[in-house]
Amino acid sequence: MNERQQVQISKLLSKHLRHEPEVLGLTLEPGGWVAVDALLDAAARKGMCLTRCDLESLVAESDKQRFALDESGGRIRANQGHSVEVDLQLVALEPPAILFHGTVARFLDAIMAEGLKPMSRHHVHLSSDQETARKVGARRGKPVVLCVDAAAMHCQAHVFYRSENGVWLTDAVAPQFLNRTSPLSEVRTA
Ligand code: HQG
Known about the structure:
Layout: H1 3-19, E1 34-35, H2 36-45, H3 52-61, E2 67-69, E3 75-78, E4 98-104, H4 108-114, E5 124-126, H5 130-138, E6 143-149, H6 150-155, E7 160-162, E8 168-170, E9 178-179, H7 183-189
Antiparallel strand pairs: 1-3, 2-3, 4-6, 5-8, 6-9, 7-8
The structure holds ligand HQG.
């Protein structure tokens, strides 16, 4: 599968497995799963050309691991990023001491006033490395990376989850846990 096809199929799956399953007449099972056969039949009814092989290639080749097949290969899901109500059956975990969030300057005033909110998703998305956060921010312009004091949040009983593809998720991050400066640059300027 070439990169263009991969992006097209990824967008199609994002739309129907994260946001609008009802458009294809699909219902997400607990965990966000949908039967592969039901997805392929529904796509075919809408005139979309999608095969089991396409799904397997996408799951195997996608560097972001947005989608997963279950052990039997009979069901597929988006690992995170849903806007529809779904129980992803996530397990709470202790987070790394610091997590990162990539955003852009135009959101900073609001973020520093009211904290990070999930916006249209179920959770705030955080990453364990700055580079990933930089890439997430860069989807919207010049990236700004915020540090999240996840250790302090964890101490105060805020719950964190990690999706199957390594994205850290939490309900919200209050301003007191956010810092625009990375610990690395603090060390450099100390
Ligand atoms: C911002 C992609 C104003 C937040 C990526 C972000 C990621 C606020 C935007 C995944 C705010 C929400 C998630 C507040 C947060 N006021 N703006 N209080 N709180 N924001 O796309 O984290 O391609 O929902 O900074 O790679 O950008 O979908 O979240 O800019 O992993 O697989 O509101 O989406 O993955 O945007 O990205 P999003 P995100 P996929």
